Amino acid sequence: xxxxxxxxxxxxxxxxxxxxxxxxxxxxxxxxxxxxxxxxxxxxxxxxxxxxxxxxxxxxxxxxxxxxxxxxxxxxxxxxxxxxxxxxxxxxxxxxxxxxxxxxxxxxxxxxxxxxxxxxxxxxxx
Amino acid sequence: xxxxxxxxxxxxxxxxxxxxxxxxxxxxxxxxxxxxxxxxxxxxxxxxxxxxxxxxxxxxxxxxxxxxxxxxxxxxxxxxxxxxxxxxxxxxxxxxxxxxxxxxxxxxxxxxxxxxxxxxxxxxxxxxxxxxxxxxxxxxxxxxxxxxxxxxxxxxxxxxxxxxxxxxxxxxxxxxxxxxxxxxxxxxxxxxxxxxxxxxxxx
Lengths: 126, 203
Known about the structure:
The complex is a heterodimer. By secondary structure, chain A is mainly alpha-helical. Chain A folds into 2 domains: 1-74; 77-126. Chain A contains 5 helices and no strands. Chain A has helices at residues 3-12, 17-39, 46-66, 78-104, 113-124. Chain B folds into 2 domains: 1-35; 63-202, Up-down Bundle (Four Helix Bundle (Hemerythrin (Met), subunit A)). Helices cover 84% and strands 0% of the residues of chain B. Chain B is built from 6 helices and no strands. In chain B, helix 3 runs antiparallel to helix 4 (93-123) and helix 3 runs antiparallel to helix 6. Chain B starts with 6 loop residues before the first helix and ends with a helix. Classes of the chains: A mainly alpha, B mainly alpha. The interface between A and B is large, with 51 and 50 residues.
């Protein structure tokens, strides 16, 4: 039971000036890039949505690694395990909600009342 | 660790370190559950984003340069919080005050901008009562704002404790949790910036 290994373990999961600065520069770059893409509308509709979503997810992982030091802890990596589970729950909650609500959306703006009730009878068996 | 430490002292130091790492893990679990809370608010917002009830949409209400300024302020504050934590590891009290002081100023700047945006919306009759879209907007962005407020109060308390007792092991542990919390809020904001503002206005 020497103290040395414990101490060196502990130091590993820390950030350094270099890693924080790298994370900051990359994050600012991605933010400005997303802003420029959106304000110049380099793509339209879903194209722009996908593009901005990809930039946000890249920035998420940059900050997780450089600011939160995720995955740099010593084994067993419980932080990473809990993160993975939370990520799974988040994906299920968000995409599950969008999927269900898209199917339930009868879009009252485009359907007449007759069309809406026909749709209900056809799709939901009312 | 100097050679002057006895075996007993080393053992105690190890025990304290282990307890601290358990506390940090517990705090990480809390942050992950907070993530799930925000996920449900993001899902609600996305479902309701076109439910304007004949009222204004995101494109009518939001100013992107204004939000970009908020974003850069919060992102910079996340960076300075990291530098503050590095200073705390060096037990450099002055640097801790300097970096966390800047973090607090940027946080207050961010919060002031957010409150003035909310204030303007409410004055123009576009409060949470106007439409489903605005209810979801105020809930999502407001919950983030409340977290930021909590973070600022916590930071004030921590600076007061460090002023009194210096960077002790306990204060270092609390400061580590605080900066985790602050980085987490910055990550949530990336998604608010992207989904609510950039996509809400331009796509």
